[in-house]
Amino acid sequence: MNVYDLIFYLFAALTLLSAFFVVTTRNIVRAAFFLLFTFFGVAGIYVLLGADFVAIVQLIVYVGGILILLIFGVMITNKITSVDIKAGTIQTLPAAIGVGLFTGIIGAVILNTDWFIANSEMPESTLSTLGKMLLNEYVLVFELLGILLLVALIGAASMARK
Amino acid sequence: MRDYIYNFWQGLYTILVGMKVTFRHLFIPAVTIQYPSVKPQMPERERNRLYVNMDDCIGCDQCARACPVNCIEIETVKSIPGEDLGTTSNGKKKALWVTTFNIDFAKCCYCQLCVFPCPTECIYMTDTYEFSEFQRENLVYDFVTLTPEERIQKKKNFEEMQAKKEAEKIAAAKKADEDKAAQANKPAETKSDNKEENKQ
Amino acid sequence: MMYDWLYNLTGSEILAMFIVSLLPLFVFILPFALAAVLAERKVSAHMQDRLGPMRTGYHGILQTIADIIKLLQKEDLVPHATDKALFNFAPLLVFMGSYAAFAAIPFSGFFIGSKIDLGIIFIVGVTGLVVAGILMAGWASNNKYSLLGAMRAAAQIISYEIPTLLIILTVIMLTGTLSLYDLSEMQTAYFWNWLILGGPAVGLQKILLIPLMILGFLIIYTSTLAEVNRTPFDIPEAESELVSGYHTEYSGMKFAMFFLAEYANMFAVSAIVSVIFFGGYQSPFGYLGNTLGWTWLVPIEQFFWFTAKGLFGVFVQMWLRWTLPRFRVDQLMAFCWKYLIPFSFVILLLVGLITLM
């Protein structure tokens, strides 16, 4: 086990533990802050996978943008910070069936997939290849996503003006 | 649109003007006085702690009467004949021993009203302004130059003299009474009443 | 590179990495913060015709050291009604965010914490942690001033990130690189190769770029100033209305942590601006080391130029602080959304057209 494995397990533990706390904590603001650590851990794992651009975009978009807006919204919304979220167990049987099925499917997929193992060399830079791919092969998807975001933006603005 | 560009330019320009002002002030010498190590120059007619030059004080009590807050306390004792108290610097003859001259600076309001009536100009304002104390009692300044023993002595001297005078007076009165009694028989009761009144 | 040298010296990958990652903190940030706090007080004092601290050491040069000792000795107060865990973690997160930015800052051609290709974007990304930390501190303090300050900080930083990113995008478009090292190397040799004077381009392109670049520099300097919450954009900690904003409840070492993060951030943003527009660690007129043939002198010279540029940026921040009054909240937002963002879009467009030439 070298140092990178150690760092991977650190980030994985961070992600899983904070995700667990997001679900179980009764305080909604705390849940939002635990979500921050989840995103951060995921970004760390991206870095270890050699996807540096994705990791940084994860930081900028999720930690710097979405999460902050989430916390902002939670804090600004009146009376939401003191609301107790129900964390008890209800309807155990259907839930157990659903979760069991889901784990079964996931487990089957994990075990039966023929995993493609890349050579362990770190890619030098993903940025230029990523850019070329986005603007050559996937340009239609890229542009459509841009238009979708623009439409959402205009819609939100027009709704806010009403 | 023109206003918009103009606003932008105006904002930028005024910031630069402001920055010029602050930059100039960066090199203007500071006006700060490093107080305990550098004392500020006080004005000529400053009013700070009083000082009493006891060599010149004739014990006239005028300063104590002028004081609006009664912070000056003076007690004097007459000198006995034959004692030479000297003269003040402006030639007045001193006739009273000043046994108490206390100024309570906790009460003093630094109005300088005590300075003007002084006939010998012995009470005046100094330039000392740092005399704070931890105990309020320490702010009562005693200006008398006599030692405590001397003060008691002077009082005793005066009392002795007084007593002597009284005794002489009584003796003289007795003598006169006897003389009068010898000369003419008059009711002695009223006389003795008068004598007691005199004493008081 | 420093890492390779240390790797050869210690023979251990982890140890070398550890030392390299701690080096900016102990060699640079702590002494810088000490000096900058004193400089701030001295600059402010002299701009107001005062003297500032004069008692500790010659002209008060030991004042901040005394302050740090005082802060270390102080009791670590945690108010009763706070969210303890978040309250204790927030200063760490804020400091982590501003310290992580130093990983990608090129102090000289020979010392960069990490020579990653995404330098600028990385710095912008990790600075997001600072916002999260500020919000955390504000919420965990359970104090109305802290919460208001944190809200204002978050709104302000998120808004001003947009013009910053747009100008960075302009520069990326012009130079074709995101790496701070490549950006610095591109502006080598003489000062007319700096991007503020059009970069290494020649002819008409350069002349057209100069006004745009100067405007871009003004915009990015203003918006980074707002991102580090300095006056005139200090509404998150506005002393006269919010006590001191999100760190009202903090004391002792945790407060010092916020303070250190603020000063580290101040240097980080002026370093980024200097890398983007003023050639980073490049000397404006060649190197003495190269002329004399002493190659060992070059990194030292580069470090000198880099810190000189960064410190000048910090000085201008202080200068502005004591020149301008604080913005009102609505003015702050109007300034960002109505002036900075449209202007940066125009610059982006025009620079795009010029690069096509």
Walkthrough of the structure:
The complex is a heterotrimer of chains A (162), B (200) and C (357). Chain A is built from six helices and no strands. Chain A is mainly α and 162 residues long. Chain A has two domains: 1-84, Up-down Bundle (Four Helix Bundle (Hemerythrin (Met), subunit A)), CATH 1.20.120.1200; 124-162. The longest helix of chain A has 25 residues, at 52-76. Chain A is globular. Chain B is α+β, with helices and mostly antiparallel strands. Helix content of chain B is 39%, strand content 12%. Chain B is built from four helices and five strands. In chain B, the strands form two sheets. A three-stranded antiparallel sheet of chain B has the order 2-3-5. In chain B, strands 1-4 form a two-stranded antiparallel sheet. With 357 residues, chain C is mainly α. Chain C contains 13 helices and two strands. Chain C has helices at residues 2-10, 13-47, 63-73, 84-100, 119-140, 144-175, 180-186, 204-227, 239-242, 252-277, 288-292, 297-321, 329-356; strands at 106-108, 111-112. The longest helix of chain C is centred in the N-terminal third of the chain and has 35 residues, at 13-47. Classes of the chains: A mainly alpha (162), B alpha+beta (200), C mainly alpha (357). At the A-C interface, helix 2 and helix 3 of A face helix 5 and helix 6 of C.
